[in-house]
Fold this sequence. Notes:
Layout: H1 2-19, H2 27-49, H3 60-78, H4 82-101, H5 110-128, H6 130-137, E1 141-142, E2 146-147, H7 157-177, H8 181-200, H9 204-224, H10 227-246, H11 248-258, H12 273-287, H13 290-295, H14 304-307, H15 314-345, H16 353-368, H17 381-392, H18 398-407
Antiparallel strand pairs: 1-2
Amino acid sequence: xxxxxxxxSRWLLGASIYLTGxxxxxxxxxxxxxxxxxxxxxxxxxxxxSGDTLRIRPSLVEWIFGTAFLFAMLVAWFTGxxxxxxxxxxxxxxxxxxxxxxxxxxxxxxxxxxxxxxxALVASVALLEHQDLLASLTGSVEYGLGLVRYQPLGMHPxxxxxxxxxxxxxxxxxxxxxxxxxxxxxxxxxVGLCLxxxxxxxARAGMLALAVxxxxxxxxxxxxxxxxxxxxxxxxxxxxxxxxxxxxxNIKEYLTxxxxxxxxxxxxxxxxxxxxxxxxxxxxxxxxDGVRMLTGTGIRSALPELIGFPVESSYINTALEHGLxxxxxxxxxxxxxxxxxxxxxxxxxxxxxxxxxxxLMVVFILAQSIFNRYLIGVGNPYxxxxxxxxxxxxxxxxxxxxxxxxxxxxxxxxxxxxxxxGRETFSH
Length: 428
């Protein structure tokens, strides 16, 4: 019965992740989003019902998230914003559900569930929208409209940059860890398909975030990596440079087209004035009211229909909704988790590249969040995965601590932390 409940929990979670990848407008979108949340909570319930939930005390990150969501809910309730109050309550329930899922004895399998959900999403794109994907991937331009940006399963191109750019990292991690050649080939094919969706959507923020993640990984491996990893890195860079030099004219022409660099509104000549003006308006709104600056106005209270303009930055959005105090703590929790994962993933003599890639995944969403507002969210697959990942990387098992204390009566040793390279955080 325990095994059945665990398997049912995983299937419900996979269905929840899959539903968050569909974004067709109208009642179907609302039904998909609410259905995904319901399935996630049911997955947590069956996970708890299996009886294999470990007794692990709440981490500091869970306390930060829980207190921030509760405070935002109370602020919204006090100001009479019913919708924001409901969002706060929903996020609290999701946080509890995720906390249960990451405490299950088979929590390392969660990443496998996310990968298979991504496989189902990419397969749906290939089966249902392959013509639109290929047209946008080749740089389809319509008179009076400009570049036609692909919207996978109705998803906004900017959001698809986060979802499928992050998906590429998720499968690249699998490529490094897979023990068999056919598994590596499948993971690499999924990386390529995710990047194709990213290019077809002309999601420049996602591409830039991938470049930041790749640059971060390159620098850290060059400074702290093993000799073998450095040699592999040098060979990969030489091969990439050779290909770019050989095909420079074609690459330049394609990137100019697919990145829409000559567009009067999105191109180089536009000077990014639209987005910087929005950022300036958002910052002015934060500091316009001293009380709002400290307390925020509640979750989802910074929507365009409420404040009059879109907030195209997670950091400004978080400050508006949670206030500067809790907003800063939330961002700091993500940044600290990324730093610790990167540090422990490249521990001298004991590299743990799956953990290192996990840190780069968090770096990716932190970089992407400069241009979009998806840092705290459960309505898309990648934000949902990062939420699970950050919680998972900050757990401190009580059982491990007690065992360590009983096994070392003669002298005291440091208990391994949750991000130590010896602890398997992800499934092989």
